[in-house]
């Protein structure tokens, strides 16, 4: 029996500079706690802060790691030390309950690590990169993902992520704050009340900051990964879209309770 999972490996840019290594380490510990809270209803998951400036996450579902990584990237507060995420997804023949993340060796881990290393070497350094094919030939029982088109799918996915990253980089600080606030609050009126700005001002920042395009890309990538999982696994206990909805609700609920942390970005 196989199980659908996704993985991210988070690393931090310039983590050894500015003398804030301990502060960053404490922040990563906090993010591990937050991700654990967000995924409470989707257990089992594995998440670990290790090697000083690295977090590794493994959880059920093709889209889970990307959803978590996207939210972390939007609330990240150290703008001189941005995170970047090597991502992979696929299938394993063990239940996550039976995995020891500290000892587990699997091609999907190698893929996420390889994607992370490619980002580390990229001077433009996008936030996200998927690796789907470098080390893993896949499960022949799951033809929807592991067929002759997987290279093309990886290219399209990473191209979308690169365009998304370009739009994010072009945002001003207030546009970034509006976009992140809207991701959580989902209403421009609520964003205006939180930021103390008028609806027309919020609308202007939202449009000029290409927030709709950034968030639409996030949603479409999530939906595509969910569709792929649903086509691969015809007898899932929980529909992938429903699982993602549960995860999104959990993340937003927790972040609304801690919404003032956005002022630090």
How does this model look, in words?
The chain is of the alpha+beta class and 265 residues long. The chain has one domain (3-170, 210-256): 2-Layer Sandwich (Alpha-Beta Plaits). Helix content is 51%, strand content 14%. A hairpin with a 3-residue loop joins strand 2 (45-50) and strand 3. Helix 2 (64-75) runs parallel beside helix 9 and helix 5 packs across helix 6. The longest helix has 22 residues, at 211-232.
CATH topology: Alpha-Beta Plaits
What form results from the Cα inertia axes?
A: globular
Most strands sheet = 5 strands, mixed
For CATH, the homologous superfamily is named as Reverse transcriptase/Diguanylate cyclase domain
For the record, the count of structural domains works out to: 1
Helix and strand succession?
Answer: EHEEHEHEHHHHHH
Low-confidence runs (pLDDT<50, min 5 residues)? none
Q: In terms of structural class, how would the helical and strand content be classed?
A: alpha+beta
**Percent in helix:** 40-55%
Task: Supply the number of helical segments.
Answer: 9
CA-CA gap between termini: 43 Å
Summary, kept brief:
With 265 residues, the protein is of the alpha+beta class.
Topology, element by element:
Elements (H helix, E strand, L loop, with lengths): L2 E10 L8 H18 L6 E6 L3 E7 L3 H12 L7 E10 L14 H15 L6 E3 L19 H20 L3 H13 L2 H8 L3 H10 L2 H22 L7 H18 L8
Parallel strand pairs: 4-5
Antiparallel strand pairs: 1-3, 1-4, 2-3
Helix pairs in contact: 1-9, 2-9, 4-8, 5-6, 5-7, 5-8, 6-7
Descriptors for this entry?
265 residues; alpha+beta; five-stranded mixed β-sheet
């Amino acid at each position: 029996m196989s199980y659908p999972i996704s993985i991210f490996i988070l690393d931090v840019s310039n983590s050894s500079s500015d003398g804030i290594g301990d502060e960053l380490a404490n922040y990563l510990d906090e993010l591990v706690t937050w991700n654990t809270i967000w995924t409470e209803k989707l257990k089992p998951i594995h998440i670990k802060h290790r090697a000083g400036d690295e977090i590794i996450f493994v959880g059920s579902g093709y889209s889970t790691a990307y959803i978590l990584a996207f939210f972390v990237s939007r609330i990240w507060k150290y703008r001189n030390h941005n995170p970047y995420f090597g991502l992979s997804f696929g299938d394993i023949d063990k239940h996550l309950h039976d995995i020891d993340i500290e000892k587990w060796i699997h091609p999907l881990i190698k893929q996420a690590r390889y994607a992370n290393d490619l980002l580390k070497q990229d001077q433009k350094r996008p936030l996200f990169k998927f690796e789907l094919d470098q080390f893993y030939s896949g499960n022949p029982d799951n033809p929807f993902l592991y067929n002759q088109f997987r290279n093309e799918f990886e290219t399209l996915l990473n191209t979308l992520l690169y365009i998304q990253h370009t739009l994010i980089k072009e945002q001003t600080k207030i546009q970034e704050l509006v976009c992140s606030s809207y991701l959580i609050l989902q209403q421009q009126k609520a964003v205006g009340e939180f930021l103390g700005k008028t609806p027309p001002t919020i609308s202007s920042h939202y449009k000029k900051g290409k927030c709709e395009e950034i968030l639409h890309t996030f949603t479409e990538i999530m939906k595509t990964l969910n569709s792929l999982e649903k086509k691969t696994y015809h007898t899932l206990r929980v529909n992938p879209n429903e699982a993602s909805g549960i995860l999104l609700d959990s993340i937003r609920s927790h972040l609304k309770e801690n919404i003032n942390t956005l002022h630090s970005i």
